[in-house]
Specification:
By secondary structure, the chain is an alpha+beta fold. It is built from 7 helices and 3 strands. Helices cover 45% and strands 13% of the residues. Strand 2, helix 5 and strand 3 form a beta-alpha-beta unit. Helix 6 packs antiparallel against helix 7.
Length: 164
């Protein structure tokens, strides 16, 4: 069995390469890499890698990042572009990107998932949990198992029949 997250990079890689993004990590981890305010107002669209001859004195070896920006934020993005490039180049580990091209378009931003509120365990449930881990001889392992059991048992029950 594989986790879906482990399969996503292999699945996305061919599509990302067509857009000039060899590593899907930039897309998948945009919020972490770019940080705020960039993650809320723009998304990477593609990377245009330079073509030409290294012998040419005007040749620039850095790539151009094309981003889609929410309408009304393009002037702000123009001013913040050097900061964005700095963050992205830190991700790559070298000065890979040197330019930003901005296109304005509506973005559908995915809200961050919120964890459901946990419920408090009853005294009976706490006693049952303590009884279940009592046979474990190691006190440290008992504490770990108790915290794990408490975490699992305090989650809202998704199998509750809501039909009356």
């Amino acid at each position: 069995m594989s986790r879906a997250a482990e399969l996503i990079p292999d699945f996305l890689s061919p599509a990302m390469r067509r857009r000039g993004i060899a590593q899907s990590g930039l897309i998948l981890r945009w919020r972490d890499i770019a940080g705020l305010p960039f993650a809320d107002i723009c998304r990477p669209e593609r990377i245009a890698w330079p073509r030409g001859d290294n012998a040419d004195p005007d040749y620039d070896p850095t790539a151009t990042l094309h981003i889609v920006c929410r309408p009304g934020f393009a002037p702000e993005m123009q001013h913040l572009a050097p900061l964005l490039l700095e963050r992205l180049n830190q991700y790559y580990g070298y000065r890979a990107l040197g330019h930003v091209k901005i296109r304005q378009a509506p973005l559908t931003l995915t809200p961050e998932k919120r964890r459901p509120k946990k419920r408090e365990l009853t005294e009976r449930e706490k006693a049952e949990l303590a009884q279940a881990i009592a046979p474990v001889p190691d006190k440290r392992l008992q504490d770990i198992l108790y915290r794990l059991g408490h975490e699992i048992m305090s989650r809202p029950d998704k199998n509750v029949n809501t039909k009356g």
